[in-house]
Structures are given as C-alpha cells and as structure tokens.
Design a protein that fits this description.
The complex is a heterodimer.
Chain A lengths: L1 H12 L2 H5 L3 H6 L4 H30 L8 H23 L1 H7 L3 H4 L3 H13 L11 H29 L11 H15 L4 H8 L3
Helix pairs in contact in A: 1-9, 4-5, 4-8, 4-9, 5-6, 8-9
Chain B lengths: L1 H8 L13 H4 L5 H25 L8 H23 L1 H7 L10 H11 L4 H31 L1 E3 L11 E3 L1 H5 L8 H30 L5 H10 L2
Antiparallel strand pairs in B: 1-2
Helix pairs in contact in B: 1-7, 3-4, 3-6, 3-7, 4-5, 4-6, 6-7
The chains are: A mainly alpha, B mainly alpha.
Chain lengths: 206, 230
C-alpha cells in the first residue's frame, strides 16, 4: 500500500513539473518533438531512480553519521554529476542503441533541478503525507522512479500538444516559449483535480 | 563598462529574454518577500561564483571546468543556506528546498561558463550584479502580480520602528482574490503572458526602427504587422 501511495503521490498529486516546477528547463526545451521528449523522459526516470538510491546511501551512512548534514547540497550535486557520468559510460559500453537514444540527454540531466529535487525530497525529508514513517532505501528508489514517471507523463502530454501547435495559427508574440508556458499552466490547473482526498479514498478511508 | 551591467537588466534579462533559471524561481514567487529572499540569494551566489571563476580561470584545466564550477557554486549556496537558516529562519522555511536548488539554477552556471571564464574580474562582477538584479526584478514582477491578484496582499519584511507589520492588505482584492494566481498553474500562466508581452515589445521596437530607417523597402513588414494585429 505504501508503494501505491508513493506512486500516486509523485506521479499525479505532486507531479514534479506541474506542481513543484522542478525540471521546467528540459520540459520547455526538449518538448518540441515527441521522440526527443520520450527519450528525455526515460533518461530522467533512469537517472532519478539511480540518484535516489545513491543519495539515500550517502545521506544515511555518511552525512548523518558524521553530522555533516550541512554539506548536503555540495555532496548531492557531486554524487549526481558523477553518477550521470558513470551511467553514460556504462550505457555506452553495454548497449550502444540505448546510448544512441538517450546519450545526448544524459549530460543535460546533471543540471536538471528534478534530480537534485528528488534527492532532497525523497531522502532528506523522506516523507509523504499519508505515510508516517521515513522512506527506506527501496521506498526512496520507488519515489525516484515514480517522480520520473510523472516527468515522462507530463513531457509526453506537452510534446503531443506542441506538435499540434505547429499546424495552428498562433499570434506571433505567443509563438514558441510563451504558448508552451500557458499550456503548461492549463495542464497544471487540470492536475489540481488530483489531491490528498483522492488518495485517501483510493486507500480506503484511512 | 556600464553596458556589462545594464544588459542583464534589460537586453538579456535572464528570466524573460534568455529564459534561464526558471525551475527554482517560479515556485517561490507566491509572496513578494520570498522573491526578494531568493533574489538576494541568487545575487550573492552569482557574485561569488563569478568572482571565483574569473580569478581562477587560468588555473582550472579545460576538461574538469564544469565540475569545478559546480563545486564553487555549491559552496556559495551552502553559505547562503547556513546564513539564511541562522538569521532568517522563517524565510528559510518558506523557501524550503529551493534554497539548495540555487545550485542547479542555470543562470549561475551559465554566466560562469559563458562570461566569467572568459572575462576580467571587474567585468565579471558587473555582469554578475546586472544579471542578478535583472533576475530579481523579473522574479519580483511575477511575485507582485501573483500576490496582488492571488491573495490581495503584498508581504514585505516587518519594520518595527514605524510599526509596520510587513503586510500591505489591499481591501477589495483581499476579500475576493483570484485564487488561481496563487496556485502552481498561476505562476506558469503569468510567466507565459509576461514572456509574450516582452517578445511583443521587442518585436514592436525592432520592426518600428527598421521601418523608420527604410520606409520604402519595408512594405511587406508593415503588411505583416497589420495582419498579425501588432
């Protein structure tokens, strides 16, 4: 049940892009074409799941034990940068087709706010409203995975809309980025339908 | 010299013209005070990182420059975090994880890579100040619009000497706020319309200038403008 709650929370209720503005830059930048949006989405899922495991280990085994919590920002960003680099190298060795598909997006992900965001939300805070305990390592992995899925969902919706815009007439000042923001705003409005009440109902009146 | 400073505020405004550093900024634009706090943090980090990168540019090897910049930026962000937690705990609580997320604010790494690593110290300082102030003004604009329409208030810091509690309440709007501005979608919508407005301004001034310079040759442009209703 906890896993279900995490999934619903991070995919729909607290969708990283549409409610927390994390990962807006790639969301606006890479959502022009469906193919590249899907590539970026999967790359983000992959890196976020990995990053939440690694940062969980670093936070709980090193920073908390050594009372160095204030170093979290600098440690996490370095760990994530190293991780992205490593993932890139491993994929390149093991599976060239996958590297071809995801390769160009991986370096961009280091400065994706969503990855550092999941490290801070799922590891340091490590809580969602309906689950009382702090996440263990599997739950924070799953939180990272779900947040990635939420990103994929949002970027696929966005890119399919933006492909439509190419055939529609749009006033010149609105072309490109402004209309993308307005679309995202309207999508965020629609996503407000998912809230804690919905989750509590799904979980069966807790 | 002065151009280095002013370009960040108007011509290359990081938020509205080059559209960088959105992720950690839109989320904090619900209250004016948060925008001011965020702006101050970004100016400090930008200044620090630009100074350091500009001084160290000859010592950092080409291949590891990005990780080195990230470490420099992260150190300054840690300083901001600790200072804010100690002296402005309320603000720190409001901004939450977004203080740490200044690290991945693309403007800061962008300026280090594109400007400070190629220019002299004084120019880099001016560039950092200009970009930082431009960013803060942009953020402030979004925050003012969102707070006035979304809550009918303007939240500033309290000043005890004149008995000001830090909140200006606008009567009618406070009673009937347009709540959508306060939600996440409000930030995206406001950003979209503002960006469109600035694009329109830029476009209008540019084509006007061209038409004035060569009135005969730009008939097509005038026609285009009329068709689009600009």
């Amino acid at each position: 049940m906890t896993y279900f709650a995490i999934l619903i929370t991070f995919v729909l209720i607290e969708n990283f892009i549409l409610t927390k503005f994390l990962g807006l830059c790639p969301f606006i930048g890479v959502s022009k074409k469906m193919d590249s949006a899907i590539g970026m989405g999967f790359a983000v899922i992959f890196v976020m799941s990995m990053a939440s495991i690694v940062t969980w280990v670093v936070w709980n085994f090193f920073l908390v034990r050594l009372h160095l919590e204030f170093l979290k920002t600098i440690t996490f960003i370095l760990v994530i940068a190293a991780l992205v680099q490593l993932v890139e190298m491993i994929i390149q060795k093991i599976s060239p087709p996958l590297y071809k598909a995801l390769g160009i997006y991986l370096p961009l992900i280091t400065t994706n706010c969503a990855v550092l965001g999941i490290a801070l939300i799922a590891v340091v805070d490590g809580k969602i409203a309906v689950v009382d305990k702090k996440f263990d390592v599997f739950q924070s992995f799953f939180a990272g995975f779900s947040a990635g899925v939420g990103f994929l969902l949002a970027i696929i919706l966005m890119s399919s809309l933006r492909e439509q815009f190419e055939t529609e007439w749009i006033p010149k000042p609105f072309r490109g980025i402004p209309i993308a923001f307005i679309t995202a705003g309207l999508m965020a409005l629609a996503f407000m339908a998912f809230d804690q009440g919905l989750l509590l109902k799904l979980l069966g009146g807790r | 010299m002065i151009k280095e400073f002013t370009k960040g505020i108007f011509k290359e405004n990081p938020l509205f013209i080059i559209v960088l550093g959105l992720c950690p900024s839109l989320a904090v634009s619900t209250e004016v005070i948060n925008a001011l706090g965020m702006g101050a943090g970004v100016i400090f980090v930008l200044l620090g990182s630009n100074i350091c990168v500009s001084l160290l540019k000859n010592f950092i090897p080409e291949k590891v420059r990005i990780p080195s910049y990230v470490v420099i930026i992260a150190s300054f962000v840690t300083i901001v975090e600790m200072v804010m937690e100690a002296y402005a705990p309320d603000l720190y609580k409001n901004l939450g994880i977004f203080v740490s997320l200044i690290v991945v604010n693309c403007i800061i790494l962008g300026r280090a890579e594109a400007y400070a690593s190629k220019n002299k110290l004084v120019h880099s300082i001016l560039d950092a100040l200009g970009m930082g102030i431009g960013f803060t003004l942009g953020l402030l604009l979004i925050a003012v619009i969102r707070e006035i329409f979304g809550a009918g208030t303007i939240t500033l810091f309290p000043v005890k000497a004149i008995g000001f509690n830090g909140k200006i309440t606008l009567g009618w709007l406070n009673n009937y706020p347009a709540k959508v501005f306060a939600f996440a979608s409000g930030a995206l919508l406001v950003m979209g319309y503002l960006k469109a407005f600035f694009t329109w301004l830029e476009y209008r001034f540019k084509t006007l200038k061209q038409i004035e310079e060569k009135p005969g040759k730009n008939k097509e442009k005038i026609k285009e403008r009329e068709e689009q209703g600009i």
